[in-house]
């Protein structure tokens, strides 16, 4: 598995150890409801039993939906905790593997998805042109890509001294804070401070920290052109840049 700046950032073997257990129920519901609707519209133009690769599949919400539509699906994620949750809840026929995007070598995917800021994490260590080059290699002719990324503008304008809290008030509390790490090379840090209820007492756990780079509209357009990919962009409901790509 390829290492990145996000791997073991503060010594944890998995920066999604706690998040994976509560993501589906408390955080990802509205987000993935929107993605499923968009995905279904895209699939209307695909042949039956098309091949779908989901990069950064997390707990497998989109994979489960894609499988229900009759697609041949595969999910990858670098988080062992996310993969464990996905395997526990998904149909065993769904292929899920703990690996990096750059470790995928099998090609001819009809549709590839990468949501929830996946490319922002990859962009810490790789130019977007290189990321899109590998994406192009994996797609079949007329294959499509759908994803979303955090913009450079969002990180620079909205991240400093911002945050929110996730809690069920009974078993966990998670305080999320955001910080701008680099203004020239728009980079942000996400920190999740966890408290878990154990024996009727709140116990602090190790923080989960992630680093991601903001991506601009111009960078997306340039990387697409250099890889002969047709791209259209729109604004995601949470302010992210929504990306739709076709390989011709």
Detailed description of the structure:
It is built from eight helices and twelve strands. The chain has 248 residues and is α/β, with parallel strands linked by helices. The chain folds into two domains: 19-150 and 216-247, 3-Layer(aba) Sandwich (Rossmann fold); 153-212, Single Sheet (N-terminal domain of TfIIb), CATH 2.20.25. The protein has a seven-stranded mixed sheet with strand order 3-2-1-4-5-12-11, sandwiched between helices. Helix 2 packs parallel to helix 3 and helix 6 packs across helix 8 (217-226).
How large a portion of the residues is in β-strands, by DSSP E?
A: 25-35%
In CATH terms, what is the architecture of the largest domain? 3-Layer(aba) Sandwich
Shape: globular
Count every helix, treating DSSP H or I runs of 4 or more residues as helices: 8
Q: How do the strands of the widest beta sheet line up side by side?
A: 3-2-1-4-5-12-11
List the helices and strands and how they pair.
Layout: H1 19-27, H2 29-43, E1 51-55, H3 61-68, E2 72-77, H4 80-89, E3 95-98, E4 109-114, H5 118-122, H6 128-138, E5 139-149, H7 152-158, E6 162-167, E7 172-182, E8 187-198, E9 201-204, E10 208-213, H8 217-226, E11 229-235, E12 241-247
Parallel strand pairs: 1-2, 1-4, 2-3, 4-5
Antiparallel strand pairs: 5-12, 6-7, 7-8, 8-9, 8-10, 11-12
Helix pairs in contact: 2-3, 6-8
């Amino acid at each position: 598995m390829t290492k990145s700046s996000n791997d073991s950032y503060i010594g944890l073997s998995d920066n999604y150890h706690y998040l994976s257990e509560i993501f589906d129920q408390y955080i990802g519901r509205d987000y993935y409801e929107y993605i499923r609707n968009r995905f279904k519209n895209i699939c209307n133009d695909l042949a039956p039993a098309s091949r779908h690769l989901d990069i950064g599949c997390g707990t497998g919400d989109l994979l489960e939906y894609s499988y229900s539509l009759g697609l041949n699906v595969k999910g990858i994620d670098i988080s062992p905790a996310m993969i464990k949750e996905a395997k526990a809840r998904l149909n065993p026929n769904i292929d899920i593997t703990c690996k990096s995007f750059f470790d995928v070598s099998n090609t001819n995917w009809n549709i590839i998805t990468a949501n929830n800021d996946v490319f922002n994490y990859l962009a810490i260590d790789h130019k977007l042109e290189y990321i899109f080059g590998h994406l192009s290699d994996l797609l079949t002719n007329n294959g499509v890509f759908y994803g979303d990324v955090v913009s450079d503008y969002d990180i620079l304008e909205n991240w400093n001294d911002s945050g929110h809290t996730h809690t069920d008030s009974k078993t966990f509390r998670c305080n999320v804070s955001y910080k701008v790490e680099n203004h020239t090379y728009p980079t942000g840090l996400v920190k999740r401070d966890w408290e878990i209820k154990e024996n009727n007492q709140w116990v602090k756990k190790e923080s989960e920290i992630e680093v991601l780079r903001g991506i601009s509209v111009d960078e997306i357009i340039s990387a697409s052109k250099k890889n002969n990919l047709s791209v259209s962009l729109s604004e995601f409901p949470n302010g992210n840049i929504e990306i739709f790509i076709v390989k011709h």
